[in-house]
Amino acid sequence: MEKEHNPDMSPVTREEFESYVEVQESGVTNMFDVKTVEEISGLNKGTIMSIMKSYGELKEKYDE
Fold first, then answer.
1. CA distance 7 to 5
2. pTM of the complete model
3. How many CA atoms lie within 13 A of 32 on its CB side?
4. 19 — alpha (psi -120 to 50), left (phi > 0) or beta?
5. Residue ranges per structural domain of the chain
6. How confident is the model at residue 64 (pLDDT cuts 50, 70, 90)?
7. In degrees rounded to 5, what are phi and psi of residue 30?
8. With 60 as the cut, is the pLDDT of residue 59 above it?
9. Which of 15, 7, 21, 8 is nearest to 52 (CA)?
10. Burial (Cβ within 10 Å: 0-12, 13-18, ≥19) of residue 56
11. CA distances from 22 to 2, 4, 8, 38, 59 (A)
């Protein structure tokens, strides 16, 4: 089954993904605490939710 593209979700850049992963790897907060992740990473809620939804794809795309 083909994945549906959500037009409301803008593409996540490498820099945004890396900011998210830095917070994740720091262990400072639970990644489901979106408000805290926003504060630490500087990312907005929409970008964080996009990363969470597409984490596997993004990791494959940006992981070197």
1. 6
2. 0.82
3. 0
4. alpha
5. 14-62
6. low
7. -70, 130
8. yes
9. 21
10. exposed
11. 31, 28, 25, 12, 13
Taken in order 39, 6, 64, 31, is the CA torsion positive or negative? positive
Kindly state the tokens that stand for 35: 């408000």
Alpha-carbon distance of 54 to 12, in angstroms, equals 9
Tens digits of residue pLDDT in 1-52: 334 444 456 799 999 999 999 999 999 999 999 999 999 999 999 999 999 9
Calpha distance 60→62 (Å, rounded): 6
Tokens of 22: 């830095």
| Residues belonging to the chain | 64
pLDDT at 63: 85
